[in-house]
# Entry
Amino acid sequence: MAKITTEPKVLIPEVKLQSRVKELALEINSDYQGRDIAAICILKGSFVFFSDIVRHIEQPVTCEFLGLSSYGGSMQSSGEVKITLDINEPLAGKHIIVFEDIVDSGYTLKYILNALRARNPASIKVCSLLYKPAALKAEIQLDYYGFKIGNEFVVGYGLDFNEKYRGLPFIGYIENEH
Ligand code: IMP
Ligand code: MG
# Structure
């Protein structure tokens, strides 16, 4: 387990997050004109991003929450995904947008997309706030993303390290000591 010795440093400040989130919502608004949206928040990491972006969506939108866990307190993806909270509402015929905090290896997203496709929605798109292109291993679609970042481990704005730092209003990075 990596030992954290310093507090997170700012990588993406709050104002930049807020303006990019608004831009993403504008893109979604123009792509989904005349269609209702079934927005799916992937818990826990996406809860802050999700609550900010849905407030800028102008279409009728329903909000669902899918609880997943792929990290057992480590900084690396295990590739193993557990559903910790399922969606009870039927999704057949709906236009789904999956809201993720971050796409790293892409295994979590791949798992989510397979699970949701089995429920016969009319369409599925994915919107991730952050994206680590250098870490991507799974073949996945990413329709919207906020920021490309490097391979640093980030926290804040919903993202955690061992359940800490989710409440920070900015995206920060932490340095570890091995
Ligand atoms: P993936 O399956 O490797 O793409 O990992 C996706 C999930 O791992 C995300 O939904 C996050 O919960 C978590 N994750 C990946 N990278 C980071 C990071 O830098 N900070 C915090 N959580 C991360
Ligand atoms: Mg997490």
About this structure: The chain has one domain: 9-174. The longest strand covers residues 61-69. The mean pLDDT is 92.
